[in-house]
Amino acid sequence: MKTFLRILAGLALLLVIGVAAFAAYAWRSEIDPVDPPAQAGLDPALVARGSDLAAIGNCNVCHTAPGGETFAGGLGIPTPFGTIYSTNITPDPETGIGRWSEAAFLRSMREGVDREGRHLYPAFPYDHYTLVTDEDNRALYAFLMSRKPVRAQAPENELPFPLNMRMLLAGWKALYFREGAFQPDPNRSAEWNRGRYLTEGLSHCGACHTPRNRFGAEQRELHLAGAEVENWTAYAINAASPAPIPWNAESLAFYLRHGWHQEHGVSRGPMAPVTANLGSVPEEDARAIATYLADLMGEPNQERQTRAEAARAAIREEGGAPRPVQAGASGSGIGEAIYVSACEGCHDGRRPLPFGGLNLHLSTAVNGPNPQNIINVVLFGLPGAKGEPSAMMPAYRGVLNEDQLVALLDYMRERFSDLPAWTDTRERVAQTMGGERKVTVYRMDGTTQAPPESSMRTTPWP
Fold it and tell me: How far is 360 from 271, CA to CA, in rounded Å?
């Protein structure tokens, strides 16, 4: 019995030592508060550069709640672990970052720790932002401090115990976070290095386009291989890209700048504000990102080239002529009838993009690994940009029932793709129509170059 008690006491002591050691490892000191810098004293050139960098980083998208002030936070970000609310990054001294010094801001970007020494949840993608240079961080800080202070307290995160204990994030960081500024590859061009720096850093493309493991960390071995975000599919943007016509640097650069491309369609879902923001930054930055991504995608193999030519040939063969529908058709015939009556008038290719519909032989959504994006677009449409000419599409929610939508999707997949039928179409349709899959709908502003406003996010639910 005494031996057992000694063993038990030894284990308890080891546990105490382990907890103390972890607490010492996880502890971060507070950085003293400062008075907000005088906006009149900020360097205008530094602020302007910070504005571009904030657009590249899409800071306004996550730090603006629907109907709220830009950068004032409060947006609920759904995760598999609960909802995390974005913080106020205006220079308000009480609820924002007005009392953050430049050093405190840099630490948050580089290490994922706030001014008070608390570890930040990786919904704030510091695993990407750690690559940002000190010079660019200074510009971002100057830009944010030049914004209008907004008093707005973000709601408390909705996370269960023990995930609401920030100290545990130190363990997550030890496993998955690698701190350090970007190091250029001396064997690659300046443009390629710039593109890699922006793509892997501020643009944090992998945060959406890389699948995550059960602990919410990006799976590095599947870098940019595609994932699902806000119940939209972020397609693979590496060699596994499902685009019927392979991307190249020129088409990517045009798409990122304008939000559409004649062989790829218009940006939609969470990608719409990304292209809107990139339309406002220097062209060389968007082109650098395109150069880097095109290199990751590589030259298309013979199979992809053959598929691309087949898609172009099918478009030439159809020539925009309406297809007759067989009377009394059932099954896929119902889908065809719906397509001819509701879709073909825009998608026959006779009116060019961005104001006409994409010929669906070219649609990544129809040729993608699952039907989620085409479900979202059919049900909720593409809302037009506010006060600007833009692409748009009406919503068919409330017009089509579940069977009709499934038939339409099956027909689209069969006619416009040479790939096997999707196996989960009905399940996804039922979950989306029933509200189990909550879909964020964005205004369609891919043809404008104005940064998105908080009104970009709309909701499909009444």
Answer: 19
Question: Domain-by-domain residue ranges, the chain?
Answer: 27-176, 190-458
Helix (H, G, I), strand (E, B) or coil at 119: strand
Contact yes or no for 149/96 (Cβ under 8 A): yes
As a whole number of angstroms, the distance between CA 411 and CA 400 comes to 15
CA dist., res. 268 & res. 90, Å (int): 28
- Strand-pairing partners, residue 64, are 73
Phi, psi of 127 (to 5 degrees): -65, -20
Sign of CA dihedral 225, 282, 385, 362: negative
**Global confidence as pTM:** 0.89
Cα separation of 431 and 428, whole Å? Answer: 5
Q: Give the three-class secondary structure for 67.
A: coil
310-339 pLDDT, tens per residue?
A: 899 988 888 655 555 554 444 568 999 999
- Measured in Å, how far apart are the chain's first and last C-alpha atoms? 67
Per-residue pLDDT averaged across 434-461, rounded? 56
CATH number of 190-458: 1.10.760.10
Q: What is the DSSP string of 131-197?
A: TS-HHHHHHHHHHHHTSPP---PPPPPB--TTTT-GGGHHHHHHHH---------TTS-HHHHHHHH
| Helix/strand/coil percent split, the chain, to 5 | 45, 10, 45
The rounded distance, in Å, linking the Cα atoms of 360 and 382 is: 16
Strand partners, 227: 234
Element (H, E) at 283: helix 283-297
CB of 36 within 8 A of CB of 91? Answer: yes
Q: Read off the DSSP letter of residue 359.
A: P
